[in-house]
Design goal:
The complex is a heterodimer of chains A (about 180) and B (about 270). With about 180 residues, chain A is an all-alpha fold. Chain A is built from 9 helices and no strands. Chain A starts with a helix and ends with a helix. By secondary structure, chain B is an all-alpha fold. Helices cover about 70% and strands about 0% of the residues of chain B. In chain B, helix 11 (about 205-215) packs antiparallel against helix 12 (about 220-235). Classes of the chains: A mainly alpha (about 180), B mainly alpha (about 270). At the A-B interface, helix 2, helix 3, helix 6, helix 7 and helix 9 of A face helix 1, helix 3, helix 4, helix 8 and helix 10 of B.
């Protein structure tokens, strides 16, 4: 489909949008927890696909190229805005559906807040590998192609990210136990 | 302890990308360095229990802005209709870049100009010459496309295959070149486009035979499925024996297996 776009059939880009915009939105949302920003970044990715379509090479998978663009868009935003920090707003502003158990919703909000803080404690490169491997199910060689680094580098980042998360969650569990005592 | 090695082992274990052999090696590593054997599972639990945050649905604004951007891009292209980059596709492919294909294309266009001039010339007795020049142009175009099909660049090979898709009738040499692409090009996308191009020539028995022979030579599930669907569309019952051979392979993908069995049943 992308090859058709390269050859001038721009209507195919609409099909690609239909297929991939939610995947991209989820990718950005997991990194920033900001729906409005995530929409802007998705738009930016498709703008770049349109602008740089003649640079597309059919050698590899389209999804790898797409995530490479998404990664670059994210880093350009990070550089311009001096940080890509999580905002708590979307988590706190979750509405409670009428039929939902408020206690359960509160627990979900709390878990989301904890997750958000834990991911925020990671470096940007560590967050990248965790999001791509844990939530998008990509293999190390695919992530290496997206981030343009070696597979071993991706593995090392993943291990160190999980090590840090283990420390954070371990400290939280101890703190919860102390509250119960 | 080799810390780097430990990190690589752990990373592979955490995400489930560790083979059985490699895991045995890892367990030996843990034992040798007196590390807690429960440690890998503890890390894996942290990774696997990371909640996936509830992802909201993107707003309507995103789709509206995207479509608006796309419409503007299309308008831009129409405005630049006489710009070099926006000449009609068929013609543009004859001028891909400098080098043999580019020069051969230019020469072909010059010859076409000569032919048109000869046709309108009062010297109509040149009509015999006209036919031979036309043949030369066709032969040159074929040589260009064949050369592009052997180009190390996947993009050039893709352009060549795309040109053949619009041809009404391809000769044996072109068909054999496309079948070679289908059977041995290292790029899966190219194989798929070659298969699509060959469908356009399915009236030729050699093409049908080539498509049938190709199916159990393919390793990529995408190409296997594409060929199966093509042969079903052609109602090609001679595809049943190679389908049977493919279905007997141990390494066949489960989803592919189910689809091939359905195709086989419909062909019989």
């Amino acid at each position: 489909m992308m090859w058709s776009v390269v050859q001038g059939d721009l209507d195919k880009l609409d099909l690609l949008f239909g297929k991939y915009h939610r995947v991209l939105f989820a990718y950005f949302y997991r990194l920033c927890f900001d729906a409005s920003l995530s929409e802007d970044l998705v738009q930016n990715v498709f703008y770049r696909i349109l602008k740089y379509r003649k640079n597309y090479r059919p050698d590899g998978r389209f999804s790898t190229w797409l995530f490479q663009l998404a990664h670059n868009v994210r880093y350009d935003h990070y550089r311009k805005n001096r940080g890509f920090r999580f905002t708590n707003d979307d988590v706190q502003n979750l509405e409670i559906p009428a039929d939902e158990n408020p206690a359960r919703v509160f627990e979900n909000k709390e878990r989301a807040a904890v997750l958000q803080k834990a991911l925020d404690a990671l470096t940007p490169v560590q967050r990248d590998v965790i999001v791509l491997s844990r939530y998008h199910g990509l293999k190390y060689h695919e992530i290496a192609a997206i981030l343009k680094c070696s597979e071993n580098t991706v593995k090392a980042r993943t291990f160190r990210a999980v090590e840090k998360l283990r420390r954070i969650f371990g400290a939280r569990e101890m703190s919860d136990e102390q509250k119960e005592i | 302890m080799n810390r780097k090695k430990f990190e690589l082992y752990m990373a592979e274990y955490i995400t489930g990308e560790m083979s059985a052999g490699r895991e045995a090696e890892f367990r030996e590593f843990l034992r040798k360095h007196a590390l807690d054997p429960a440690l890998p599972d503890d890390y894996k639990r942290v990774f696997m229990e990371l909640d996936d945050p509830a992802i909201p649905v993107p707003g309507e604004r995103l789709a509206v802005e995207f479509r608006s951007m796309l419409e503007e891009a299309k308008r831009d292209i129409r405005r630049k209709a006489w710009d070099l980059d926006s000449r009609p596709r068929g013609w543009r492919r004859l001028v891909p870049s400098v080098g043999l294909p580019g020069w051969a294309s230019v020469l072909g266009l010059v010859l076409i100009g000569v032919l048109i001039g000869a046709w309108w010339s009062p010297f109509r007795r040149l009509s015999g010459r006209w036919d031979s020049l036309l043949t030369e142009v066709k032969s040159m175009k074929k040589a260009v496309v064949l050369a592009m099909l052997d180009n190390p660049s996947a993009s050039e090979r893709m352009k060549a295959v795309s040109i053949t898709r619009e041809a009404e009738d391809l000769d044996d040499e072109m068909i054999q070149a496309l079948l070679r692409t289908l059977n041995s090009d290292p790029n899966v996308n190219l194989r798929l486009v070659a298969a699509e191009s060959l469908v356009g020539q399915a009236g030729n028995p050699a093409v049908r035979r080539g498509l049938v022979d190709s199916i159990d030579r393919q390793e990529s599930p995408l190409v296997q499925l594409a060929l199966a669907d093509i042969l079903l569309g052609l109602g090609e019952k001679s595809a049943v024996p190679p389908l049977d051979r493919l279905l007997q392979r141990r390494d066949i993908d489960f989803g592919v297996q189910r689809r091939l069995e359905a195709v086989r049943a419909q062909l019989l």
